[in-house]
Amino acid sequence: MTTTNAARLLAPVLLATALAACATGGIPDAQKLELYRSHAGEPVSSFNFFGRLNGWTPLGDSALAVWTRPSEAFLLQLTGRCPDLDFAPAISLTSTQNRVHARFDKVIPLDRNPHSIPCHIAEIRPLDTRALRTAERELREGEVVADQPSGEAGT
User: Fold this and answer.
1) What does each C-alpha distance from 146 to 11, 113, 138, 150 come to in angstroms?
2) Could you tell me the sign of the dihedral formed by the alpha carbons of 143, 15, 93, 74, in that order?
3) How far apart are CA 12 and CA 14, in angstroms?
4) Selection from 76, 74, 85, 87 nearest residue 118 by Cα
5) Rounded Cα gap, residues 34 and 54, in angstroms
6) Looking at the chain, which runs of residues are DSSP E strands?
7) pLDDT tens digits, the chain, 155 residues: what are they?
8) CA 147 → CA 90, 129, 137, 141, 142, distances in Å?
9) Three-class SS state of 54
10) Which pLDDT does position 11 carry in this prediction?
11) CB of 68 within 8 A of CB of 47?
């Protein structure tokens, strides 16, 4: 394989990795979880789920956000640690009659291990996605500004 062919094959992988890094913005899991909690509504018993997720965001090893549509997301608090969650490239949700229920359904991290341990959903809270995106953007921009030199000379 030539260097040019290798570069063409690796370019999409590198782009996807870079985009994933940008999407998370380097916000630590604990801070990200608090941000999501502050934009979550009151707990609900279930939500509609038609077998496909629009995306998901791990928030440590005991919570995650699932996006059912670009403008609809839910914060799922798990009953305990879900050790495979942070490293899983994908997840699956159990559901009954197109609904995911708190205290009944599970998150299943999908990876190379064929025996992934299901993680039970303790609580479901709808997210204010518009406010959440704005807060994440402001937080990332604030970190960028904070990381830049102040420009003060002779201090």
Assistant:
1) 31, 41, 12, 8
2) positive
3) 5
4) 85
5) 22
6) 46-48, 55-58, 63-69, 72-78, 90-93, 99-101, 106-110, 119-127
7) 444 443 444 333 333 333 334 444 577 888 899 999 999 999 999 999 998 999 999 999 999 999 999 999 999 999 999 988 888 899 999 999 999 999 999 999 998 777 778 999 999 999 999 999 999 998 888 765 554 555 554 44
8) 32, 27, 15, 10, 9
9) coil
10) 37
11) yes
Q: Provide the residue type at 115 as one letter.
A: H
Residue that the structure tokens 């999501």 belong to: 36
- The Cα 17–Cα 24 span in angstroms is 11
Tokens 């025996």 sit on residue: 115
4 phi and psi, to 5 degrees? -65, -45
Among candidate residues 42, 52, 56, the one with its CA nearest the CA of residue 98: 52
User: In this structure, how many other beta carbons lie within 10 angstroms of the beta carbon of residue 86?
Assistant: 13
Q: Look up residue 123 and give its amino acid.
A: E
Phi–psi pair at 120, nearest 5 degrees: -75, 140
Mark residue 25 as left, alpha or beta (left: phi above 0; alpha: psi -120 to 50; beta: remaining). left
